[in-house]
Amino acid sequence: EVESLQLGDPPPRVRYASPVSGTITDRHVVIGDDVEPNRHLFEVVDLSEVLAIGRVFEGQIGRVTVGQTVRVHVPSYPEEAFEGIVDRMGGALDPRSRSLPVFVRIANPDRKLRLNMRATLSLVVERSDLALAVPKETVLAQPGATSTLRFPLTLPAKIVPGRHELRVQAGHGVETFGLSRRRIEPGPNRADEPSSPTFIYEPASATVQVVNVNVPAGLHIGYIGFSDDPVPRLLAGLGITVTMLDERALAQVPLEIYDAVVVSNRMYDALADLGEQTPRLLDYVQAGGVLVVEHQGRRWDPAKFAPFPGAKSGNPRVTDETAAVRLLAPEHPVLSFPNRIGDQDWKGWVQERGLYFWESWSEEYTPLVETADPGEEPQQGALLYARHGQGAYIYCGLALFRQVRAGVPGGVRLYVNLLSQGRALKKNSSTTDEDR
Q1: Which residue, 64, 209, 245, 363, is the most exposed by fewest CB within 10 angstroms?
Q2: Where are the beta strands (DSSP E) in 389-434?
Q3: Kindly report the CA angle at 202 between 200 and 208, in degrees rounded to 5?
């Protein structure tokens, strides 16, 4: 053939062998074109095995490994799932999306998968006891519209205590969406910040904190707090019945129906009438109830609002949330019923140990813990307990409200203990009667 070309008598066709077997996916020449020696004529691809490129977000990278199984869905075959493995992972994150490319190798013996097909990749991870598949649908009428869907969540009986992350995905056809959008407002007239809002996209997820906590059956408390306080809702999740008490209810409701009444943080500053209701609260204690008073502001005076003398000026506090805590009475019911408090319960606290501690108190009070910021004198006014008549009065300067909101296990366990002291009194009373 070469000789014929040189002699000026070209054959009608010239056959070239491709260096690889496969399918022609692109052609760069037509009949009649002039062909130069280095011209790229065809693209031939072996489709018996294909490579899909997906992206994982920064917070998910630790769950992806080379060799991991991946399920692949494409719109052309909606009822069929293909299977591949992670071949390799990229070396750098995309700075805008904070995502990393992942390359997935997929066997394609039937040649169903073609170049440039859109695919949904689902990484197969170790099964979680919290896995949910609850089909729900909603209609978004226009771009930017929102919709709220609620899902029931039942935890397995043998779930391990700790923090569990729930990732959420929405689907439309074969496409899935798993990002949440967080709006960042511009700073106040700073040249180095954008003048319009920016948005951060991150994996859509929720956290479930599983706490090993004993809660007496049928526990019912009255709660004096702000209407948007999340603590009552969180306590309800533990099976505790919580009744919110405003000024009117506090003046009229028979308090003896509650195992404990809680005056949440700073409520003496927020409710002008609360001081006037203090005698009724102390009568409730004297008749056998339990009053738990969380930290109150500078103007709150123990000498006026507590059953026995005490003093609190300024804001004695411990700001180091990791500060050492010593139990002064480990066997006291507050520290042992229904949950025994130990060293582990002081780990993982957030922001601080506590604030607005008492500085002095009469002998009727029993201090239960001692703590201090590093290098400072120990303080014992963070958690005080006093019997008053048939009941008990508890002042708690420990920042348990923060720990309950954050799901810190030790804070939740100790808070439940405070609410359960009415049951502890009844338990001790029954034991004493039996001894008699």
Answers
A1: 363
A2: 391-396
A3: 130
